[in-house]
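Input:
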Amino acid sequence: MFSKEEREAIYKVIETRRDIRSFKSDPIPIDAIGRILEAAHHAPSVGFMQPWNFVLIESDEVKKQLAWAADKERRALTIHYEEDERASKFLSLKIEGLKEAPLTICVTCDPTRGGSHVLGRNSIPETDMMSTACAIQNMWLASCVEGLAMGWVSFYKKSDVRDILVIPPHIDPVALISIGYTDVYPKAPILESANWEKRRSLQNLIFKDKWGNK
Amino acid sequence: MFSKEEREAIYKVIETRRDIRSFKSDPIPIDAIGRILEAAHHAPSVGFMQPWNFVLIESDEVKKQLAWAADKERRALTIHYEEDERASKFLSLKIEGLKEAPLTICVTCDPTRGGSHVLGRNSIPETDMMSTACAIQNMWLASCVEGLAMGWVSFYKKSDVRDILVIPPHIDPVALISIGYTDVYPKAPILESANWEKRRSLQNLIFKDKWGNK
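Output:
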């Protein structure tokens, strides 16, 4: 079903995709946005519940409010690093580009969608959120092949984002996604280059038949 | 960075990928398994925490135990559908192929990896599980381009799977993945063809600037 070239394209995008925090203001072609959202909507979901919604934010005023919520959370978190040698490193990291990116997408998860007994979610409730994460990963790969940069911001209190976007209390705003063009698309994860965290050896993460059995 | 052909390949795999429950016993080439796990390990993760592990299960004895845990859960869930017209439909659905598939992978999430204050996870703790879901989606796309079928089983009690695979109490066995060749790779999701759930209109899931604003 897939040619060698197609297979190589998949592995190429999986390996080159990066989490980006710096964006140019150039607008995004509307058909690219359409393809990225279609990719999200074709993600797998537990019991086919499709628990996602997408709030597309282009208003500068709303973006400014979201950036305020993220910055408030960043400053609050700094306090948790204050007795840590990482504090100054943390403060120097650029953790979001919400005001720069031409498009922000708030991806939400509706745990009530599909009724009270969604197949599979009945046993493991957090599979609704995991389905939404699969949709986000599809968006990331789609953005990457469109030549667009994407960043997933998780620095905020959900209640702030609910207030700003008027999201009902039972809906979970699981991610703020920034999308735009960028000048810098690094080869390695930003947190790896910044010496914040190392890539682990895959071999050490694999076990055979039982946990701990190499 | 990506050609038109490469872009089309990505959308093709995103759209054709299906959740499969029927497998042939033919063995999987070891290098394909390697590429699928590499794809998982190249998923994004919050604070670059890489919270995943992969328990590869080829032992028939262990597979039999996992299938027992899944079947026990299936029968328990049937009771929740008993006053529902869906009960007989539920019972007729094939929900797992754990004993058929030549390879089962238990994907786990370690919420303690990366220490107490993982960047981003500090604000939204469930981003560890969402990162693991991104890894699973990469595995799915990789399996699909390898001509392999994959199924994500979430019918089990985590405590049963922990007992069977000797997984420590703080590690979360978030998914049982079946991988193998199949004779039937449907065009539409199985739950859609079985009239269990419909594909929603993407247009209805998109809002502009605020929740509810079309």
